[in-house]
Specification:
globular, 3-stranded antiparallel beta sheet, 395 residues, 9-stranded parallel beta sheet, homodimer
Chain lengths: 395, 395
């Protein structure tokens, strides 16, 4: 993997970069859709490519449990198994173990837990996390980290940072494949001092990229942005920076302004399945009765195939009768919204117009002309309630 | 609508025809996929077109209940509402009322029933069935008929035939739109005399086409074919003939051999969702453990995009973890199988090779070389258990 920064914004820390992988080049800042068990739910690789994505995320924890990393390896690795021709990043499984699995027991050696599927007993250490991710065969793999639920006492956070550094070093030592990039994950909760310590520890270990983990778990936006303000300057400018499990469009802008290059979030697909549609002027909740005879597209400014082909009335009907196609079309629209949003953000950075893009985003979200259809006023990103602990990171 | 027969097989009653509609020309014999509430579950209009379909079926009963035929009319009719550019046939709702709805009360006036969704009370007569189907706006609409569950006493079947004829005349009288073709539906259970009487009654009323209804409801194949042998000769050669709710590939061949031009069935989509995949050598039940590491496509002879892109191992995994994409990909494969099967059947008729096509179908189903993967022997169409009353016609 190689990474280069083509342009750095002068007013913010936003930057335009290119991530080169064996499965294509990715323009950054980029958003990764999440394929928990292979595909983004209901979406095939051809769809994802059409939507403009070149990098997606697969969950090591879920694929380790089903079908098993050895099956995936025997079938030629994730790219061949799933048919996705673009690049893949696998998370290490740490977040899922701490949030989904049962009876977690953490020691410096690793984590024992019970599968959330069948209660079977498992043990994952930094070494097995590397073994699993090498078998899955993604382009970018993640160090095994300890993610702490917030709020947490300082000594708990301190111990998790210490252990995350210890495990990061063991991940590096355990690697066998040289054709995968390995990213370290910064922890530290909402403690600036610990965030900086964690970042410095990992930078000392020289990873191919750095992720900011343990955020988007219920904290406020201001807290999230404060953590980025503290952490990002401690990371090398020459390496990609990845904010895990984020997020809403407003979060993406603010994190890019603070120097983040990569994101992943289940929000476009999960919200799509519940009928929450992202638009340039806030959200459309397609189940609402007001859309029953609404012939307009989801978003008049959107150029996706769903907005080109279907009315809100039809999508309302499909959602209402629980048609599988509703989930698929809503997900396609939302994914396009995110993909197009990042594309426009990159164009703005390239043109030195990132600040104007950021302002225009907030202006449009507040424009009453756009809110006729959502008079309740709960239309915008900035008004959304914070995602719950389990709400944004896992599919 | 116009219909012409281009070529009639010399050894059987198979024939090659063209059905002209305002939404395109359809080569017959043709199979119609079923979009109960608009779309075939999980499949969008573009997919259906790519799969080679030019005519699909929508269920008047389901669309009458949700979103309501008036909503569809207000949104410009089914084509505009669903985005399907091809031709549409709506069934009259009779079959669904008798099989799905509760507390049906039938008089010569019409049928009172309770919705299977919310128990609300409804009344549908030949006149309202026409009103509903004119509002929905399909290219081909069906007369309102009385479908009798089998086995049934002769006097019940006689009464249903009498009422079906009565209602057929009232459907013709109630029509307002002149841009939709109207088909009559032959009833009569498994009674040859009643089948012929029903057919002759309807032919006297001069419909644009004729359907054979009340079959594929649990009777044996031999009984079904015997009814076709009796009924089809009573129908005019110049009009399209439609066998409703059928069926398995073997049924399609045998019915084409007896002069049928059109079919509809939920089998490719419903079976797809349950992991039953149609192949040239019988069925593949993708959930079986034997496919966990099987790198081959579903059917080595299939040219669909699923067989071109995915292994049985991946489809097994997707089915196993209940991924929505499993239903979609399995349905696409099955729909392609049916579309391609009909295309090859039409080519065979055109080349005067229908008898050879029919023989080769049965030979391939019995070829042990193809059955390595399905040693239990329950691989073929001819060995399948008869569909249940509710099993094949409704989605």
């Amino acid at each position: 993997m190689d990474f280069s920064v083509a342009y750095a914004d002068t007013q913010t820390s936003a930057r335009l970069g290119t991530l080169g992988t064996a499965h294509g080049r990715i323009e950054t800042p980029a958003f990764m859709p999440v394929g928990t068990l292979g595909p983004v739910k209901g979406i095939d690789p051809h769809d994802l490519e059409q939507l403009g994505f070149r990098l997606m995320l697969n969950n090591a924890y879920h694929l380790y449990l089903r079908p098993g990393h050895k099956v995936v390896a025997d079938m030629g690795g994730l790219h061949r198994f799933t048919g996705w021709p673009g690049a893949i990043l696998t998370d290490s499984g740490g977040f899922q173990i701490f949030s989904l699995a049962r009876l977690c027991k953490i020691t410096d050696e690793g984590v024992s837990f019970q599968s959330h599927i069948d209660g079977s007993a498992h043990f994952i250490s930094p070494e097995t996390a590397m073994e699993i991710q090498e078998a899955l065969g993604a382009d970018i793999i993640m160090a095994f980290d300890q993610c702490v639920a917030l709020p947490a006492e300082t000594r708990v956070l301190e111990d998790a940072v210490r252990r995350t550094t210890l495990w990061a070093g063991r991940c590096q030592a355990a690697r066998r494949r040289t054709d995968q990039a390995l990213f370290g994950i910064v922890q530290g909760g909402l403690d600036v001092r610990l965030r900086v310590r964690s970042a410095c520890d990992l930078v000392g270990l020289q990873f191919d990229g750095y992720a900011v983990g343990g955020l988007s778990v219920g904290e406020s936006k201001d807290e999230m942005y404060r953590m980025l303000d503290a952490t990002v300057p401690a990371l090398p400018a020459s390496k990609p920076r990845y904010l895990m499990g984020v997020g809403m469009p407003g979060n993406l802008i603010e994190a890019v302004a603070r120097g983040i290059d990569l994101f992943d979030c289940v929000m476009p697909s999960r919200h799509g399945r519940t009928g929450w549609l992202f638009t340039s002027f806030g959200r459309v909740l397609i189940k609402q009765a007001r859309y029953q005879r609404d012939e307009s597209p989801i978003d008049p400014l959107c150029q996706c195939m769903v907005c080109a082909s279907y009315s809100r009335a039809y999508l309302h009907h499909l959602y209402n009768v629980k048609e599988m196609l509703a989930s698929r079309l809503n997900t396609i629209h939302n994914l396009w919204h995110f993909s197009d949003f990042m594309r426009r953000m990159r164009a703005a950075i390239a043109e030195g117009a990132f600040a104007a893009f950021r302002e225009s985003f907030y202006r449009l979200q507040d424009d009453p002309a756009f809110h006729e259809a959502d008079a309740a006023g709960d239309a915008g990103d900035r008004r959304a309630t914070p995602p719950s602990r389990r709400g944004t990171h896992i599919c």
